[in-house]
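Page header: ASSEMBLY MODEL / two components / 760 residues total.
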Amino acid sequence: MALTLSEDQQLLRDSARSFLDDKSPVSRMRALRDERDATGFSRAVWKVMADLGWLGIQLRAEHGGSGKGLREVAVIMTECGRVLAPEPVLSTLLLGANAVRLSSNEALKGDVLPAVAAGQRLIAFALEETGRFDPYAINTAAVLTADGYCITGEKRYVLDGHTADQIVVVARTSGAAGDRDGLTLFFVDADTDGVEIVRTTMMDGRNAARVGFAGVDVGADRLLGNAELLDRVLDEATLGLAAEMVGMAEEAFERTLEHLKEREQFGVKIGMFQALRHRAAEMFAELEFARSLVLDGLSAVDEDRDDISLSASAAKTQANKAARLIGAEAIQMHGGIGMTDELDIGLFFKRLRAADITLGDASYHLRRFASLKGY
Amino acid sequence: MADLESFRREVRDFLADNLPDELRVGNRPDLPEEPLRKWTAALAERGWFTPEWPVEYGGGGLDREQTAVLRGELRAVRAPVESPAGVRLLGATLLEFGTEEQKRQHLPGVARNAVRWCQGFSEPGSGSDLASLQCRADLDGDEYVINGSKIWTSGADEADWIFCLVRTDFDASKHRGISLILFEMDQPGIEVTPLELIDGTAHFCQVFFDDARARADQIVGPLHGGWTVAKRLLQHERTTDSATHGDIVGESKETIVELVKREVGMNNGVLADAVLRERLAAHEIDTRALDLTMQRAVEEVSAGHRGRDIGSVGKFRWADMMKAEHDLAMDAAGSGGLGWEGPGFEPAQLERTREWLFSRAHSIWGGTDEIQKNTIAKRVLGLPE
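Prediction written out in full:
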């Protein structure tokens, strides 16, 4: 159970870092936001990510991939987090395409995954219907028809939904909202009759969508799986998002440390004040705790351990805790300038909070951890 | 690997032959004396009381993998293994800084658990500012004459020897005039007074030196260079303590999860108190994160990573974790945790209450939380001073 990156993984990290520092500094994300860009990210950068092999890194060779693990995806997400790259790695790779990859629908895999690896397909994941994260609180109904299912319902906070070519939808074939049983994942083309997508601009500069399904017909060959698949997809995506948060928190922390070393008040560097030094030590500890739990969770997935869900909830809880502390302290320690839009720290603060809420806040994951531990 | 497996079998055979069932309960204060003495002697006979030390000093001469196997097997059967100051603190320091004569004189006694050591570092006027220490050693022929006082000295009332920081150069700056010296406790110039703590026990003593004597060849490391040696020794203290915490509140008792479940009760498979439930989950996650981080610190060192030293957070986060665990145990018990002695309370509960009181010490001894954070800010984060 290695808690350090292998040599290959370090090489991947280094090349991702140098590519992103060069082609995707934080200013790129800022410009996309300021221009209210219709896509919200760069299709050109997405294509380069495909050419670099990142988009197929977890896919099998027959699907155009290189057969690596979640650890490798997470390495890339951490680096994307450092520069706040807005490309749809989480939504397409770890939610939409991963639901296909982890399903047993081989025909669909053959159709979809090579296009994802080539950067030619964007896939959203339509799960949530209410504000507070609860993956089983699904009302969207899928009713059996002569040649498949008919889906009716309203989804919200569908990450990058406005650009999706295809959408994985979590719908209910039986039971009531809150039941784990009766959930089914379907694969729907975004341009199917009855699908209505409305882009929503989020406070972190990213985009999500409201996606309505008004009696959308789906063939029986578009079934992906049930709640077991949903749990696994969410666990992997949660770990990937936590890895991205480690990258964001690390960068916000490093920038704050630089500020403490440079800013002078009362004739001295403010990093000499013990009130700030001790808090910096706390930030460091929270960050490294998060990194340890994320690395362990990634091992749990790649080694197919039996505590994947537990590790994912532990990692997200701690990543959220670190994000809260480091985000808040980064603003506070920068003082007035930290409140300005001009300084990038605010962009980190907003993205950290958005990621904290996405796929479950600390309250959700603490309760889930407790349930998994039998109390 | 095949060698490791045969070593594991050797350990298991040894345990079957030497560790009686009555001792397979972890470290507890009430273990039967004679079986415990025999078991410890058998362990020491193999050198396994100090498994990594070289054989010539009474150690087991085991490599890192073998040591891990041995420790794992001992844990698996809940074998009681003491970890006295001579092993944890002095041993590693002597191996690094001691002369050949000092190692041959002192290490075998520690390895047999026959000679008890105590640590003379803090003084009444020198706590966090340890280097301001005033206890003095004046050279008189081939001996030093020691005068002053040490405080928070665990086990001073039972110790045969002390490793003690003393001032040997009175003109140098405070860090440069200190030496680490070893001397016997059983001599006329030494008086030991136990200190009763808030938990009602006397874990610590104050020691008074009035013309106590130490041989001049018992200085460990360079004369006046004791501060460097002391810092290394404190590093050992911090890493061993953050790496070796067991389950809650002593080794043999129930885990914190079992304890909270029993005290609070379950309601349809869920802990009956929602707030304590969240705190317990958060505590378990913290514990997991601490364990993984200390493990990662070791892996990073062996892999030659040159990032920030993550092991540096171990001591203060370990103290946080221990205090949180005892607080949780107390909160779960409610008024049941308020007993002090006598009838009306389970002995185990009385013990837990006192352990909760003692747990406040974890963020004080071995470098307070505040000192730990100062060190991290300076050495690990590179903040200006």
